């Protein structure tokens, strides 16, 4: 029963983080609908965070992919039979943003929610503990238009920062293009 509540909490916080980004975007931004996996790719999560890279931060964890919201990229949820009390989610929002966007504005929602800045992690990053046993890390990538959100529920939550670091290194323009091809949501 406890796992069900925890998974629901992870979902709610991930959607909330994505919703914060959605609200920050102008209403007429023309953001595309969620995209289907690219041809030849079984999962966008696999394209964005390949197994050989994922094993560095989450050894033995399997991934399940779904869509967090209409304007977000995939939400990848990781679980391991060896560590059943831990659930990790990684959400991608790769909507175009102005390259000159102020870092303080990007961090404001997380910092205003009791978060603290994480230095030397992407273009800007912050972390917060919304509830006991959960750590959420939000980071804006340096070389892609992506905002990544890692939510760690369970013991060892400090590993969330390393998962974020691994995900940021894996989020290249090629990986984002493969997971989000420009014509993928159109009939």
Q: Which range does the strand content fall in?
A: 15-25%
Q: Summarize the helix and strand pattern as letters.
A: HHHEEEHEEEEHH
Poorly predicted runs: 1-42, 183-187
Radius of gyration using CA atoms only: 15 Å
Largest sheet: 7 strands, antiparallel
Overall shape: globular
What is the strand tally?
A: 7
The whole-number mean of residue pLDDT values reads: 76
Q: How many domains?
A: 1
Topology:
Layout: H1 2-24, H2 44-48, H3 51-57, E1 62-67, E2 74-79, E3 87-93, H4 103-112, E4 116-117, E5 124-128, E6 134-140, E7 147-153, H5 159-170, H6 173-179
Antiparallel strand pairs: 1-2, 2-3, 3-7, 4-5, 5-6, 6-7
Helix pairs in contact: 3-5
Report on the architecture of this protein.
It is a single chain. Mean pLDDT is 76; it is low at 1-42 and 183-187. The chain has six helices and seven strands, in the order H-H-H-E-E-E-H-E-E-E-E-H-H. Helix 3 runs antiparallel to helix 5. It is globular. Strand 1 and strand 2 (74-79) form a beta hairpin. It has one domain: Protein Transport Mog1p, Chain A, CATH 3.40.1000. Helices cover 34% and strands 21% of the residues. The protein has 187 residues and is α+β, with helices and mostly antiparallel strands. 37% of the residues are buried. A seven-stranded antiparallel β-sheet has the order 1-2-3-7-6-5-4, with helices on both faces. The longest helix has 23 residues, at 2-24.
């Amino acid at each position: 029963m406890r796992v069900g509540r925890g998974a629901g909490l992870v979902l709610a916080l991930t959607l909330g983080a994505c919703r914060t980004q959605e609200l920050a975007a102008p209403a007429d931004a023309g953001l595309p609908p969620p995209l289907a996996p690219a041809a030849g790719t079984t999962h966008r999560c696999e394209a964005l965070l390949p197994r050989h890279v994922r094993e560095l931060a989450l050894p033995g964890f399997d991934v399940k992919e779904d869509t967090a919201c209409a304007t977000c990229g995939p939400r990848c949820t990781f679980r391991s039979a060896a560590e059943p009390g831990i659930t990790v989610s990684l959400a991608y929002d790769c909507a175009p943003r102005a390259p000159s966007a102020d870092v303080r504005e990007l961090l404001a929602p997380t910092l205003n929610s009791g978060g603290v800045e994480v230095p030397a992690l992407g273009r800007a990053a912050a972390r917060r503990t919304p509830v006991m046993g959960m750590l959420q890390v939000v980071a804006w990538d340096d070389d892609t238009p992506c905002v990544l959100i890692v939510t760690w529920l369970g013991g060892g939550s400090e590993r969330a920062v390393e998962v974020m670091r691994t995900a940021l290194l894996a989020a290249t323009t090629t990986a984002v293009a493969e997971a989000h091809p420009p014509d993928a949501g159109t009939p």
